Amino acid sequence: MPRRKDFLLRALMVGLAMVMVSSCAVRTDQIARDPDTVRMAVNGWVGYEASAAVLTYLLREEMGYQVQLIRTDEQPSWQALDQGVLDVIIENWGHEDLMEIYGPEGNGTVVDGGPTGNEGVIGWYVPAYVAEEYPEITSVDGLREHTDLFRTAETGEQGEFLGGSPGFATQDQGMINAFDLDLQLVFAGSEAAQITEVRRRYAEEEPVLFYFNEPHWLQQELDLVRVDFPDHEPGCADDPNHIPCDYPPYELNKIFRTGFVEEDSPAYRFLAAWTWTNEDQNQVAKMIADEGMDPDDAAEVWVRENPDEWREWIPEGAMER
Question: What is the dihedral of CA 92, 98, 102, 107, to 10 degrees?
């Protein structure tokens, strides 16, 4: 019995220690951090990277902040805000489900930071030369009749629908199911890999049907046509396995850690004030992805050419820090 009592006592002490560690873990937003460092998520598409590059450059060069860029997928970015590891997501595409969990009506660890000024569109696209040869292919019925055009060695008797990254906001499989399309969803793995494949097929004038978005610099390089689906209506995408509608339009916005907002620092006020256009983002994104420029160099070019735009974002007195 003495040995058993010792064992139970040690087990109790270990259990209490684990509870204490767990309790500390859920309060990471309260842990002291460097107030002169902004921690920014970077999600995996070049438009986001373009925005992050310009904001990082201005925070560093004009306001004296350090910026820690943390590359992560969309959903883990929200979890990192919730855990106090990040301060801001600068380009959010919807995710009402995550706002319900972490926003003011959930546990209150994140808040809507207002629009970025970018208007987001996600859809299915084909090259214009495909639409010219098969004009009906941009309708659901016409696409259903011609899915065989997109067959590949990988998909066999089914046509290929080329996705980007599995981590992107996507409802493609639900649309394939709902519209009874003989297509197989194949992920390229990343935005860069998808662009490389689309460009290759475009150069050879091969058929390709793929997920894509605006704003995006590639839309200025390639002549693409969007496939028409029934407009998105509230509730039409509730069942992810059966989605009989198009993607919704997105007013892209920022998501802040609640504690970052409450601090009301010049960095927060700068990011809250920042908005720019699809054209602005595409200009910087093209320099990065198409011209091979370092993101910081691309940001410097844009900042040098657009002083009247970015000076309005900087709070009064912030440049004197």
Answer: 160
Strands in 178-219 per DSSP E: 183-187, 210-214
Beta bridge partners of 40: 69, 88
Q: How many CB atoms lie within 10 A of CB 261?
A: 18
Interatomic CA distance for residues 281 and 105, integer angstroms = 32
Alpha carbon distance 76, 43 (integer Å): 10
248/2 Cα distance (integer angstroms) = 67
**If pLDDT is split at 50, 70 and 90, which confidence band does 18 have?**
very low
For residue 173, how many C-alpha atoms fall within 13 Å in the half-sphere facing its CB? 11
List, in order, residues 6 or more apart from 76 with CB less than 8 Å away: none
What whole-number percentage of the chain has pLDDT above 90?
Answer: 74
Q: Using a cut of 0.85, tell me whether the model's pTM lies above it.
A: no
DSSP 3-state of 162: strand
